[in-house]
Design brief:
The protein is of the alpha/beta class and 439 residues long. It has 12 helices and 26 strands.
Amino acid sequence: MNPPGLLVAAPRSGSGKTTVTLGLMRALVRRGLRVRGAKCGPDYIDPAFHLAATGRPSVNLDSWAMPPELMAGLVANIGVDCDLVLAEALMGLFDGVENCATGRCGSSADVAAATGWPVILVLDVSGQSQSAGAVAAGFAKFDPRIGIAGVVLNKVGSERHARLAIAGVEAAGLRVLGVLPRAGVPALPERHLGLVQAEETANLDRQLDALADAVAARIDLDSIVSLAACGFDRTAVAPMPFHPPGQRVALARDVAFSFVYSHVLAGWREAGAEIAMFSPLADEAPPANCDCTWLPGGYPELHAGRIAAASNFRSGLRRFAETRRVHGECGGYMVLGTSLVDAQGAHHAMVGLLGLSTSFAERSLHLGYREAKLDTDGPLGLAGARIRGHEFHYAKAIGTGGDAPFADVVDSAGRLIGDRGTRRGNVSGTFFHAMASVT
């Protein structure tokens, strides 16, 4: 069997899941435990913080985008050489897609049910006291597949506030594992897509140690470890998420191009592909001995001036695309286009391999799961394959220059969406990030 695990969840975003998760991870690592992290849903940023807190890679688990056998294999993989798994939920514990099949809603509850990991419920009790018990009771009874092992109260204003909230939760028959104050717990910096990336956060180790100090002083770590459980078979083997786009893949990698799922790269490598990383921000061209270039998402809008000035990168990528495949996801897709308007309204020339023009001056949120049916062979697979992924960005597409659509794309409810990505010659791009094939 795999090592025991716990899933840290909450009723909604902003309740303190990440604070509690990272604090527990670093505090338990300091006790000598081998801790691995996992993140429910399509999130790139939190797994990098899990790696920083534990020293071990984290993995995404998504019940909608991933076939059950892929998720099972990934859980088995993270259980190797590990004493405890701490998974971080997304949004609220039961939040997922509409009209879903049982167990395939994309919710964190699906992950808890599939793995057998008990749930630690983080409750932001600002503005309430005993009523926290009613919230906790509702979460404990809502889904019989999962179990709430205990509650952590967050943003508590005073000792009296703590006593009242604890009384409410205990009256509901649940255990309070710790209490975090409204002030005095370190907060990590944020921006428009979530936390500032781990590699960009100054003094991150010091901040993680401060979080661990706060959590260790106020949460019962012995109880946390004792409550962990598991219901997963280590023999599960993860299938390949989707075929690698080439035998040797040139992968853009720096703070502007950092959104790559670890399970995708691991799957490519297991299939025999080699990954050669290069940095557009350092004005590096893709290595000439590769047969595909992959530009992942990230924050090109924050570095548009440097990308526009990276003449060696831009000319090298154009030469590469004359004979070999190039694909971009989200931010990488924007860079393959003709121009990008930043949040201040400044226009920046991009690589120009596609006709796409995008703007952050007119912010428009695009968010949700996507399923693409490929109508031609390409970087994500053969014609007819169905690929599931996720889209989350604020860029507005101004035009596509008449390029052909990349694929037929629907949302999680099967509704056609307007953006289908584009392709021209050897070059293609999409706003959604691919997670797994479902064919």
